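hey so i finally got around to running the thing on that chain from the lab meeting. sorry it took forever, my laptop kept dying and i had to restart like 3 times. anyway pasting the input first so we r on the same page abt which one it is
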Amino acid sequence: MTTFATHTGLLTLRSLRTLSRQPAYLLFTLVQPMVWLLLFGQLFSKVAELPGFGVDSYLEYLTPGVIVMTAMMSAGWSGTTFVDDAERGVLDRNLTSPLSRGSLVTGSLVHQGIVTVIQSLIVFGVGLLAGARYAGGVTGVLAVLVCTVLLAVVFAALSDALALLTRQREALIGVSQFLTLPLAFLSSVMMAPALLPGWVADVARFNPVDWAAVASREALTADPDWGVVAWRAGLLLALAALLGWLATRAFRSYQRSI
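ok and heres what got predicted. didnt touch it at all, straight out
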């Protein structure tokens, strides 16, 4: 376990060094979320007045949803690192070294988790400046970070597995575009669950994006139901563990194809 943790830490540091040389990546991934937060937050501000919506400020409702969407969209690109490493021969050298396959995947997921925390804090800050208030305080913010990191790990693991199976950047882009908006709209990210069409509400029950959104909004209320938060966080944790295992297993397919 000590060796595994060391290898994971070194691979995470490698990814963070790459990020430090390309800080524009963080800004690029935040452009669309900021449009959703600032434009939609004002454009649909009257939605909160609808009977049954349940909150006074649409911006406060939307902010955790945008944080969840940011984690999902950013994590969908995680596998491009494996694609780039495969094209440069770095991945093949790593597989012939003492590095374990698990540490290769875990290093990628830890890196994505750190990126998600940074992005989430920036969105929290912009939301605060725009007028959103977080009644859940620091505890609520920390709970949101946990849920968004788990969601990011889910999509990063899926992206890593697809990268190892296809070794094509185009495939990752296609899957990411195919999943992100449908999963966002088939959830309560932008609209209160009570106001969703019946079939959308039914689909949302099995949507990890909705799990993270519901848990995040609940954690930011003045009197959170921690049972709701814990149940959905547990579902995200289980799904993240499953997809992380599948991403590790995808190395077998990659090695058979080279």
